[in-house]
Write a structure and sequence with these properties.
The complex is a heterodimer of chains A (239) and B (448).
Chain A: H1 2-9, H2 15-18, E1 41-44, H3 56-67, E2 77-80, E3 91-96, H4 104-115, E4 119-124, H5 132-145, E5 150-152, H6 174-177, E6 190-194, E7 197-203, H7 207-210, H8 227-238
Parallel strand pairs in A: 1-2, 1-3, 3-4, 4-7
Antiparallel strand pairs in A: 5-6, 6-7
Chain B: H1 4-8, H2 17-50, E1 54-58, H3 59-69, E2 77-82, H4 88-96, E3 103-108, E4 115-120, E5 128-133, E6 139-144, E7 147-153, E8 158-163, E9 170-174, E10 177-181, E11 185-186, E12 191-197, H5 200-212, E13 216-223, E14 226-230, E15 242-247, H6 256-264, E16 268-272, E17 288-289, E18 310-311, E19 314-315, E20 322-327, E21 330-338, E22 341-346, E23 348-349, H7 352-357, H8 363-378, E24 384-385, H9 396-404, H10 415-418, H11 423-444
The chains are: A alpha/beta (239), B alpha/beta (448).
Chain lengths: 239, 448
């Protein structure tokens, strides 16, 4: 009986396909996944290079399927931050190297997205506090949510223990350890909280580079670096 | 000067037969008048000996007259003409008068058949639901010890209010009749347990309930080796811990026997999504799960945002089950009672889309209130008595009829003027004047 219901739900037309007029300006991987599957959504924005880490979705989808029993769509989707469809994906990943200048609509959607309970992760693909992405992205966050909204996340936060345990807070990336970017190891992440939950997570640690490897590479790694990505998804789904 | 012997013989002293006839007629009238006064005085005396006069009083006079009727003026009967239902103190005082020998009847404009019921709602904000029975179109005003709370017009037999709190006695006024009620019990609100796979539905159901103030424990299946837990979910599902269980998918099957026993004991269950199709829960669900229907787009001006949600309609409604909501011909929510508990089967799927993507005015709030109301509808809460000092009157007309009887005739027709306190001296004076005049007339005619 359960299978019957699940099968029937598979007939649900995917929101992306139901909004032909809302397609983003760039080609997208429209998904036909049922609504109850977790879909990795990459947020597109008008400025910058939102597509700078194209292998991240595949690696994270693989990790979610490997470590959890969550139903997960085999392909991620790219969805415009300024589009209504963004609200069909309560978890979104946003990254880039280039300056981020949000449109009014993108800013409105971002605020509403967080207020309604969505979680967006913004990762600085530059790993550089002097970099243009960091400066402009944090300015946009400040402008959207107000000064002081972006707070340092303590190492004891649920995010670091919801599935895998990270006793020292956010795991360091090889780019930090190799001295690239700003030559710093960033000890913590920052977040905009809404009703006690993370609505926007901001990272300087360049997980985009860390997770943007060819999926075959993972088998040669001693420790899977995407485990923290699983925590992000599990936190978004359960908190 | 006529001779006395002539008067004794009935001779006419004036010598005019017509005049004599008129005087004799007048004397007869005077005698009749005196006799009537005597008869009436006798009637009054008998009435007084039997227990006092009948007293009529209008509604507003009754309260102040009661003390008089119970002490220095004990009437034989009281007829009260009411323009509204008296308060419980006046009504009960009237009801007590027959025990002291005073018959009580009443009539007048029958007060509105109103009633008020008040009860707490199982909700973390502790609202109070007030039903007021009122004729269609009648003005209904609700107030408590702090003042007017709300007012509306009677619709389909009454009015329903949900108020955040009430201070002291609650008064519902309908067409001049006031019904009063007092909150007699309170409900301790217990936690809600949410069961399911880690999913957007689980996340947003928990968020909605927590934002409303519910204490939520959650168990989300996540990995073969364990669940994600939120709050402090107990291994035991019972009414001592949980007000309701929300089952969102097949994970609830693990707890099937516990949930069934919990509902039999009075617990509340909401089965939504795949949980409504579980064989482990089927015996306690109000219906079966039908074939799922796809969702649609949210409309800009939609006043029914749930129209856009996917649906697994409730089919084959069991005897005693009730459909709470429909979409077209499909049942979307069905409820029924199982043992001491209540169960709701929700056909909507992925209600989180309403909160995230809904285009109605405030979908977050609407989704939150909707889920909270669903839980309130089935939640278990033991009722605890509250200490109550005031005397409430929730159904004034029913109480009036119950204690004083149905409105009766307006008492003896004579009662109105027979019980006039000026009547006795008037009758006595009339009798004396009539007798004196008759005697004087006879003496002047020379008769004894």
């Amino acid at each position: 009986m359960v299978d019957h219901v699940a099968d029937a739900l598979a007939l649900v037309t995917h929101p992306w396909a139901r909004h032909p007029g809302h397609r983003p300006r760039v080609g997208v991987a429209a998904s036909s996944a049922p609504a109850r599957e977790f879909v990795w959504a990459t947020a597109m924005y008008q400025s910058g290079d939102w597509e700078s880490a194209p292998s991240v979705p595949a690696n994270l989808i693989d990790s979610i399927a490997r470590y959890t029993i969550l139903p997960v769509a085999p392909r991620g989707v790219n969805v415009g931050l300024g589009m209504a469809d963004i609200f069909e994906y309560p978890f979104a990943w946003l990254t880039g190297h280039l300056p981020v200048r949000l449109t009014q609509q993108e800013r409105r959607n971002l605020k509403r997205y967080v207020e309604r309970g969505g979680m967006i992760v913004i990762d600085d693909h530059n790993h550089d506090v002097e970099g243009l992405f960091h400066k402009t992205a944090t300015e946009e966050i400040k402008q959207t949510f107000g000064p002081g909204a972006l707070q340092r996340l303590p190492k004891t936060h649920d995010l670091y223990s919801v599935f895998f345990k990270f006793d020292d807070g956010p795991p360091t990336t090889s780019h930090e350890l190799n001295g690239w970017g700003d030559n710093l190891v960033h000890r913590s992440l920052h977040a905009v909280l809404h009703s006690g939950r993370i609505g926007l997570l901001y990272s300087n640690k360049d997980y985009s580079s860390e997770w943007n490897f060819h999926p075959d590479t993972k088998r040669f790694m001693a420790v899977d670096p995407t485990r923290f990505g699983v925590n992000l998804v599990v936190y978004a789904l359960s908190r | 000067m006529p001779f006395p012997a002539d008067r004794r013989a009935g001779a006419d002293p004036t010598g005019a037969p017509d005049q004599r006839f008129r005087r004799e007629t007048a004397e007869r009238v005077l005698r009749a008048l005196a006799a009537t006064a005597v008869i009436l005085l006798l009637v009054l005396m008998i009435r007084a000996l039997r227990g006092g006069p009948t007293v009529r009083a209008r509604g507003h006079e009754v309260a102040e007259a009661l003390a008089r009727w119970s002490s220095r003026e004990v009437p034989g009967a009281v007829h009260v003409i009411l323009d509204s239902a008296p308060g419980p103190d006046v009504r009960d005082w009237l009801a007590a008068l027959p025990a002291a020998g005073t018959e009580v009847t009443w009539d007048g404009a029958v007060p509105a058949a109103t009633g008020v019921a008040v009860e707490p709602v199982v909700d973390p904000t502790h609202p109070i639901r007030v039903w007021v029975a009122a004729p269609r179109g009648a003005g209904v005003t609700l107030r408590d010890g702090l003042g007017v709370i709300d007012s509306t017009l009677g619709h389909q037999g009454g009015a329903l209010f949900v108020i955040p709190q009430v201070e002291g006695m609650l008064h519902a006024r309908v067409n001049g009749t006031e019904a009063t009620a007092i909150l007699l019990d309170s409900l301790p609100v217990r936690s809600v347990l949410v069961l399911g796979t880690a999913s957007w539905e689980g996340k947003f159901v928990v968020a909605a309930l927590e934002e409303r103030g519910w204490q939520v424990d959650a168990r989300f299946a996540l990995a073969p080796r364990g669940d994600v837990r939120q709050g402090n979910p107990s291994a035991q599902i019972d009414t001592a811990r949980y007000a309701a269980v929300v089952a969102l998918d097949s994970v609830a099957a693990r707890y099937g026997p516990q949930i069934r026993a919990y509902v039999q004991d009075g617990g509340g269950l909401i089965a939504a999504g795949d949980a409504a199709a579980l064989s482990a829960l089927a015996p306690i669900l109000p219906g079966a799960a039908g074939t799922s229907l796809p969702g649609g787009d949210f409309a800009d001006d939609s006043t029914h945002p749930r129209q856009a949600l996917a649906l697994t309609p409730v089919k084959e409604l069991k005897s005693g089950a009730l459909s709470l909501e429909r979409r077209g011909g499909d049942i979307t929510i069905a409820v029924w009672r199982v043992g001491a508990g209540r169960v709701a089967q929700v056909g909507y799927v992925d209600t989180w889309r309403w909160r995230m993507a809904g285009l109605d005015e405030d979908p977050v709030r609407a989704h939150r209130l909707w889920w909270s109301a669903l839980v309130s509808g089935v939640a278990y809460a033991p009722r605890l008595d509250r200490p109550v000092a005031d005397l409430a009157e929730p159904t004034p007309l029913a109480s009036l009829v119950s204690t004083l009887g149905t409105p009766g005739a307006s008492g003896p027709a004579l009662a109105g003027w027979l019980d006039d306190p000026r009547l006795v001296p008037l009758l006595f004076g009339s009798m004396l004047v009539a007798l004196l005049a008759e005697w004087a007339s006879r003496r002047l005619r020379g008769l004894a």
